[in-house]
Design goal:
Helix content: 25-40%
Number of helices: 6
Structural class: alpha+beta
Largest sheet: 4 strands, antiparallel
Strand content: 15-25%
Distance between the termini: 14 Å
Strand order of the largest sheet: 1-4-8-5
Radius of gyration: 18 Å
Order of helices and strands: HHHEEEEHEEEHEH
Number of strands: 8
Number of domains: 1
Shape: globular
Length: about 220
């Protein structure tokens, strides 16, 4: 999916120096968005705007979304706006010798985490919810390459000293103290069926999201 151009401030001359200055101004503005976020809900909204291409930085993503995530953009944005701060995700794919399970993880309030957890009673999704400070779950392959396991997910991991979920200190590095962040639960959802594309996303958004525009096609 083609990303929208980043916002600009003022005019930019066609020189390397002025171009770099303009880029720095844009980055500073977008960093301010995150530094001014005061609540988990505000982080979720910023993450949704990042996923949709309105801003170019998120503390939980190393750069632009992978191309494979394009079809997931409506789902990911809607889930964030429903209170599920997404961190990592991938679509289900089956290329014969290489396969993926649809997968998503992130942080949510206790109420939202428990709503997601209840879906394990009415679906064949693996769902892990872990309260703050608790190691939970089990790792399982979510990607295979040349018929061998390549990447794993399914467990919550903590920093040894702080007992915080690993993702939280990294978020706080860019956002500072955010109300509700350290109290958030870790949530991981995996479709156990290799290569299935829509099932996980439909189950989650049907539960959490009031409206969701259908995917093209």
């Amino acid at each position: 999916m083609k990303r929208s151009a980043p916002p600009t401030t003022g005019t930019t001359e066609k020189t390397d120096g002025s171009y770099k200055i303009a880029i720095m101004e844009i980055e500073n503005i977008q960093n301010d968005f995150w530094q001014n976020a005061q609540t988990l809900e505000a982080l979720c909204e910023l993450n949704a705007r990042y996923i949709e291409g309105e801003i170019d930085f998120s503390p939980t993503y190393g750069g632009p979304l992978d191309e494979e995530s394009g079809p997931l953009i409506p789902y990911l944005a809607a889930l964030n706006r429903s209170g599920f701060f997404t961190i990592t995700s991938q679509p289900g794919e089956d290329d014969g010798h290489s396969k993926q399970r649809a997968f998503i993880d992130g942080l949510a309030s206790e109420e939202t985490a428990q709503r997601i957890e209840r879906l394990s009673l009415v679906s064949d999704l693996y769902i892990l919810t872990s309260p703050p400070g608790r190691y939970n779950g089990c790792t399982m392959p979510i990607t295979t390459d040349l018929f061998r396991p390549y990447s794993w997910a399914g467990a919550a991991h903590l920093e040894d000293e702080t007992r915080l979920f690993l993702e939280i200190p990294h978020i706080e590095k860019y956002c500072g103290s955010v109300h509700g962040l350290r109290e958030a639960w870790y949530v991981c959802v995996i479709d156990l069926c290799w290569g299935r594309k829509d099932y996980l996303w439909r189950i989650l958004t049907d539960e959490l999201c009031v409206t969701l525009e259908p995917l093209d096609g």
